[in-house]
């Protein structure tokens, strides 16, 4: 079975075509700047040179049509006909309370995704554009929605509710939803396999730390808490997002600086975090380099980042009454050995003992980086959200 995975942004389409017999990637790519006459399409086929094309692509339907043309092109493609695509897996950011698992898309599912647009106004509309375009161009295929929020729907009410007047939940569904669920699910499944233990027996803390960052407390295979909340702004300090702060800061700064709602929202999402504190960058590599060159603002940004991450891990160990393994994944988690070292250095009370040589290895492979004597295993698991979406799609279609 061949499964096409699509992740649509407001002006982009990210795609991967899988052969599910062996879960190999046949082709992948990205369409950027949709809506312009200078859109860029980058197309990769395993074992061949990358193909880059600039063209006028005015909407997502036209963009997907371009992708399908490349996939079936005699020289650049990997399939003879779009009929070979049996199913399409769509990343959908917010499923609200409507979806606790992936679903086959029909008209009612589309209506429910639309009802949740208020919860993810920047993400769900382009996700819907991708679904509509794919159903138009691939009417023979099964279409599956895989939600970032679904994995966290197992949280108990005392973890997902906010201490606000209950009427706000009843009227507007204001509660913790969490994100990065597909990634957290993938790496916890892989961690159990690497450790050779049943997932149903493990207490795991999954650290998805990239430009956006979140932790998940996964107890016996189920998410019981996560740091992101109603939106991806809550929780950890991130590349450009502030994470959790005193909520009274918002009206205070708005009054002092005469900011609009849009301006203060932009400040917290795009100009805070590592970028805001350092004044340099939201990229951990640039922050680390600047710190070693003696930049004290970069030093402070890194100290704050690792301190808050370590605090959150400690809180989740308490929430689950223990932890068997801590998993680092995503851009920072997989590549920033200094971040992992600084975080684990403050977790010795849990019995964490890092193997410094293993931690320092530059490897793209999943691995255990704790010592044999460590009471808590520490792992690096490269995430693969696209493969997880493809698996969920296949499993639903084959039922």
UniProtKB/TrEMBL annotation:
Any one biological process term the GO annotation gives: acetyl-CoA biosynthetic process
Pathway assigned in UniProt: Metabolic intermediate biosynthesis; acetyl-CoA biosynthesis; acetyl-CoA from acetate: step 1/2
Catalytic activities: acetate + ATP = acetyl phosphate + ADP
Principal subcellular localization: cytoplasm
Binding site for Mg(2+): 7, 385
Role played: Catalyzes the formation of acetyl phosphate from acetate and ATP. Can also catalyze the reverse reaction.
The species this protein was found in: Polycladomyces abyssicola
Cofactor note: Mg(2+). Can also accept Mn(2+).
Record EC number: 2.7.2.1
Gene that specifies this protein: ackA
Pfam family, one: Acetate_kinase
Binding residues for ATP: 14, 208-212, 283-285, 331-335
Name recorded for this polypeptide: Acetate kinase
Annotated Gene3D superfamilies: 3.30.420.40
Coiled coil start-end: none
One Gene Ontology molecular-function label: magnesium ion binding
């Amino acid at each position: 079975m061949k499964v096409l995975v699509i992740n649509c942004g407001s002006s982009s389409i990210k795609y991967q075509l899988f052969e599910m017999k062996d879960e190999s990637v046949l082709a992948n790519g990205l369409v950027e700047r949709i809506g312009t006459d200078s859109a860029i399409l980058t197309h990769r086929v395993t074992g061949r040179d990358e193909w880059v094309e600039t063209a006028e692509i005015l909407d997502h339907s036209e963009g997907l049509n371009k992708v399908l043309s490349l996939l079936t092109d005699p020289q650049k493609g990997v399939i003879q006909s779009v009929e070979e695509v049996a199913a399409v897996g769509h990343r959908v950011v917010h499923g609200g309370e409507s979806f606790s698992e992936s679903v086959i898309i029909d008209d009612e599912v589309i209506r429910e995704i639309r009802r949740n647009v208020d919860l993810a106004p920047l993400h769900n509309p382009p996700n819907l554009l991708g679904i509509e375009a794919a159903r138009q161009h691939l009417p023979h295929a099964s279409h599956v929605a895989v939600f970032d929020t679904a994995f966290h729907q197992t949280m108990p009410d005392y973890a997902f509710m906010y201490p606000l007047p209950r009427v706000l939940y009843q009227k507007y569904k204001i509660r913790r939803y969490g994100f990065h669920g597909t990634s957290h699910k993938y790496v916890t499944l892989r961690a159990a396999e690497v450790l050779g233990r049943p997932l149903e027996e493990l207490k795991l803390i999954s650290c998805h730390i990239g430009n956006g960052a979140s932790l998940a407390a996964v107890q016996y295979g189920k998410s019981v808490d996560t740091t992101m909340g109603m939106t991806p702004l809550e929780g950890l300090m991130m590349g450009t997002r502030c994470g959790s702060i005193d909520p009274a800061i918002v009206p205070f700064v708005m009054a002092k600086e005469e900011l609009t709602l849009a301006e203060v929202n932009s400040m917290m999402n795009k100009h805070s975090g590592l970028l805001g504190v350092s004044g340099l960058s939201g990229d951990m590599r640039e922050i680390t380099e600047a710190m070693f060159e003696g930049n004290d603002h970069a030093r402070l940004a890194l100290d704050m980042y690792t301190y808050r991450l370590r605090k959150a891990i400690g809180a989740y160990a308490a929430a689950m009454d223990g932890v068997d393994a801590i998993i680092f994944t995503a851009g920072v988690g997989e590549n920033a050995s200094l971040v992992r070292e600084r975080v684990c250095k403050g977790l010795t009370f849990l019995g964490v003992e890092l193997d410094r040589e293993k931690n320092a290895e530059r490897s793209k492979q999943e691995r255990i980086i704790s010592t044999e004597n460590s009471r808590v295993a520490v792992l690096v698991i490269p995430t693969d959200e696209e493969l997880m979406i493809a698996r969920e799609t296949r499993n639903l279609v084959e039922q």
